[in-house]
Amino acid sequence: MSVEIELKAWVDDPDGLRLRFSSCAGQGTSFEKADAYWVFPGGCGAAPSSGVRLRRETKTDPAGTVSRALWVTYKVKEVRGGVEINDEREFSVSDAAAFEELLRRLGLQKDIEKNKRGWAWNCAGVTAELTEVAGLGWFVELEIVTDDDTGGTVTAARTRLLALLRKIGIKEDRIEPRYYTEMLRPPKGGSCP
Question: Is 190 inside a domain boundary?
């Protein structure tokens, strides 16, 4: 089991924050992520409430090497004490069109799309991303991956994440507790039969 413990916060000065990260953690890897979320119509069905995400990802490392990947992800998500705790399952696929056709045949439909670009660093075991989310703005995402979501582990991770947030000069009141998909998705009604 892979558990992500993460937080995200709004960023007012992305250029300044990128310089701060680069000065302590190197140039970083640039990325572009195009996500499509697939759900059962009306939210009904056995898929996780977050849906199934198909991500098209392009990364360019500091040496200029470009890599591309297609990732399928589903999660059980929750927020505790201002941090997200996600039980995430992820695997790669080689053919996006074939996988999307499978999802359609299983009764899912494309719900929402999210596009991100930015840079990623490893800062003392914390993955740090400076991310522009199309339609929303700039965020910093700080994440620790562990194999357990017990109270002590979550508390220790939250402490580390908040310490790094302070170190990079972002105040706690800039933390955004909502998921990006919540922020991007217009409210909708509907109920399951």
Answer: no
The domain total for the chain is 1
Report the distance separating Cα 126 and Cα 149, nearest Å: 16
Decide if 154 contacts 83 (C-beta within 8 A). Answer: yes
CATH of the domain at 48: 2.40.320.10
pLDDT at 21 over 90: yes
Per residue in 93-143, pLDDT tens?
999 999 999 999 999 999 999 999 999 999 988 999 999 999 999 999 999
Taking alpha carbons only, the member of 40, 191, 193 closest to residue 108 is 40
How far, CA to CA in Å, does 70 sit from each of 12, 28, 54, 64?
31, 21, 7, 20
Write out pLDDT tens, residues 44-68: 655 556 789 999 999 999 999 999 9
Answer whether residue 141 is part of any domain: yes
- Cα separation, 156 vs 77, in Å, equals 19
Domain-located, residue 191: no
DSSP string covering 126-176, please? EEEEEEEETTTEEEEEEEEEES---HHHHHHHHHHHHHHHHHTT--GGGB-
